[in-house]
Amino acid sequence: MAVACGEEDKPTPAKILTNCIDVDGDGYGTGTCAGTDCNDGDADNWTSCATCVDTDADGYFVGCDKYAVISGPDCNDTLAHCTSDCTDLDADGWCVGNDCDDALAHCGASCTDLDSDGWCVGNDCNDADADNWSACDTCVDTDSDGYFVGCDSYTVITGPDCDDTLAHCTSDCTDVDSDGWCADTDCDDALAHCGASCTDLDSDGWCVGNDCNDADADNWSACDTCVDTDADGYFVGCDSYTVITGPDCDDTLAHCTSDCTDVDSDGWCADTDCDEALAHCDADCTDADSDGWCVGNDCLDTDANNWVSCDTCVDDDLDEYFVHCDAYTSITGPDCNDTMDICTTDCSSEECGSCTDIDMDTWCDDVDCNDNDVNNWLSCASCVDTDTDTYFVGCDAYVTITGPDCDDAKSDCTTDCTLAQCICVDEDDDGHCSTDDCSDSDINNWVSCDTCVDEDNDSNYVGCDAYTTIDGPDCFDRNDMCTDTCDYACCVWVKGNYSWVDISSSGADLGIGSEDDSWADGTAIGFSFPFFGQSFESVSVNTNGMLNMGEGSGYANNDPIPNTNMPDNIIAPLWDDLSASTVASTVIRSQTIPGPVARFVVTWEDTAFYGNADSSMTFQVILTAAGGIQFQYASNSDLSDTQGQGDSATMGVEWGSGTDTQGVPYSYDEAVLDGDSLAWGSSTLELMCPAPQ
Asked: How far lies 636's CA from each of 543, 606, 685, 686, in Å?
């Protein structure tokens, strides 16, 4: 049969193949068709179902039998931007027909180029940045010196940085003086200690910006460590000693400067001691009386017989025999009895009386406070070494002991109390030196700086060493209404540390968990509980969230505290119209817990408000043998109900009766358990009271 030109691709009409089933009308199917169809739902394929693909997902297919419904064939099915024509003059992967301009290598679908860098939208990583088209992520200025690295170009920005880790190196990283400032930023690259500025006011070779103090020629890095602790004019810890003197060989010894050799161990070293071989000569070697003790150490440098004992060397009986002198070079002595002029060298005669002098200090045992101690005859009680440095003070002599100590309160001050550590600085004039004063600007404290407080902000303090410029002590620092006189009316409720005491398995069931407006009388506390001047051995536990100290009651309607109505002597963690019978699981328990301070615990478990079965609360009260009272609130199943927040309850304590009733309320008909003031599951209230007066 002749076929007209242009009809060779047309399938034979299905109507000619009367026995051909051809769903997609491509002439291929089952029966008497032109052939079998690999997919009779695809009009473009009858043999090429497996090869007809669009690999680059550009909507153009290859390997198909025909392209009636789909587009194709694709000129290159690996290039998504080449479809019917694979001509790509600018070799940018976008072919004619898809490229917006095939003469622009960096423009594909769009020829928009906002930053005019030759890279269009879609190819430019940031088309608002003329310096970057592919390097947006790598173009950085790490050292923040205004010079960038890793960029595509440097048209608007400056770069590239020669080293982007050195802020003072930009275009030229030459650093001749190795000071971290390169040739293009260093004021002089031959000066190692000058960077941005070459100003050097003190001419120490360290310029402003590198010098810690450019007015101090001796310091450029050691401004904080350059000190003269012993105030002897010699410094330590400095960079140099051009203007100042140093280094000090020991900056804790005022009499040791450049040479700390101290042969005679007198605290004066070789460079300050007038003679290092003379232990009793230091600043001045003048020894007018030639007794080996020089001016400054000798109590009287014109008396060769005394250097320490000028005040004790006497001749009371005027027999020209002396006692209690350091030596007897130009005087006669010691006198064996300085109360009788006829007794001088021999006191064994009957006229002199018998004198026992065991320690041979010329003081007889009947007047010597300790005749076994050659150092004391009158000063046994005052001769002490308080600072345990083996240097004594207050003694009559220092024959077998060392002394006198120049400061017996400081162990590092013995012979020379002119040292810096020995000088007492007392800025607040409280009698305590700054070295021992916790705050030498506070005359009220020298030990108690941390404990001296005014917690209730009433300008009355407690816990201080003195109350010189402040008022105090406050009789109770928890209540600003109580300062000078305190009684039980000063008690206050404070928030304590929540620590639930679980007695759910160990506490005794009081047997009132299924009753309404009931109470358990005579519940033993387990100790004598002090309650505002009274003592109780037992308590009555009420189902309505309170304790009665003494005889119980079933009062359901709460009152404010204090009031003259019954009941009296109550402790109310949550006094409201509660019903133990509303919730089947309600149990009210008590338990005494022994310990250093015994505790009595009562817990209301799963109790509810009367007529409200949805409310289930657990709370407890804790009494201590010391008189302490705590309320703890563990759980509430309905936190949204304001009744469960306490807006119909009384919380507090009350004592006395009638017109003598007193109390400390926490709340009355207030929703204080709202999560702000107090919170179920985390709150404890503790009653704080002043000490009884």
From this structure: 17, 9, 17, 20
**Amino acid occupying residue 397:** A
| H or E element in which residue 313 lies | none
The reply to whether 292 falls in a domain is no
The per-residue DSSP string of 19-39 comes to: TEE-TTSSS-SEESSSS--S-
Distance CA(334)–CA(324), nearest Å, equals 7
DSSP-derived letter for residue 691 is P
The neighbouring-strand residues paired with 53 are 62
- Rounded average pLDDT over 488-514: 92
Round to whole Å and give the CA distance between 155 and 266. Answer: 78
Whether 113 contacts 127, CB under 8 Å: yes
State the first-to-last Cα distance of the chain, in angstroms, to the nearest integer.
Answer: 133
CA neighbor of 192 nearest in space, from 179, 205, 203, 183 = 179
548 occurs within a structural domain? yes
Indicate if the pLDDT at residue 392 is higher than 80: yes
Tell me which residue of 635, 650, 687 sits closest to 558, measured CA to CA. Answer: 650
Residue 536 backbone dihedrals phi, psi, to 5 degrees? -130, 135
What three-state secondary structure class fits 525? strand
- 9, 137, 2: which is closest to 68 by C-alpha? 9
409 domain-assigned = no
Using one digit for the tens of pLDDT, what is the confidence trace for 328-354? 989 998 888 888 887 888 877 666 766
Q: And the tokens for 36?
A: 């079998």
Residues facing residue 632 across a β-bridge: 620, 684
| Cα diameter, the chain | 181
Q: What is the DSSP string of 627-663?
A: S-EEEEEEEES-TT-GGGGTTT-EEEEEES-GGG-EE
Residue tagged 């402040």 (tokens): 470
Task: Centre a 10 Å sphere on the Cβ of residue 267 and count the other Cβ atoms it contains.
Answer: 19
Residues 6 or more apart from 289 whose CB is under 8 A from it?
298, 300, 301, 302, 303, 304
- Using alpha carbons only, how large is the chain's radius of gyration in Å? 52
Residue 508 host element (H or E): strand 508-509
Residue 13 reports pLDDT greater than 60: no
pLDDT digits (tens, 9 = 90+) for 168-184: 898 888 988 888 888 88
Structure tokens that stand for 594 in this block: 């022994």
Cβ contact 369:394 at 8 Å: no
- Between CA 499 and CA 497 the distance in angstroms is 6
Domain that holds residue 610: 493-688
The residue type of 590 is S
pTM score, whole prediction: 0.45
Q: Specify whether the CB–CB gap between 460 and 467 falls below 8 A.
A: no
Number of residues that make up the chain: 693
Per-residue b/e over 37-69, b at no fewer than 16 CB within 10 Å? Answer: bebbebbbbbebeeebebebebebbbbbbbeee
User: Of 46-50, 387-391, 519-523, 581-585, which range is least confident?
Assistant: 581-585
- Kindly provide the b/e burial profile for residues 236-250, where b requires at least 16 CB atoms within 10 angstroms of the residue's own CB: bbbbbeeebebebbb
**The predicted structure's pLDDT at residue 103:** 80
Q: Can you give the pLDDT at residue 317?
A: 86
Structural domains counted in the chain: 1
Does the pLDDT at position 582 exceed 70?
A: no
Q: Which two tokens stand for residue 5?
A: 């030109």
Does residue 541 lie within any of the structural domains? yes
Residue 394, classified by CB atoms within 10 Å of its CB into exposed (0-12), middle (13-18) or buried (19+), is middle
HSE-up of residue 195 (Cα within 13 Å, Cβ side): 12
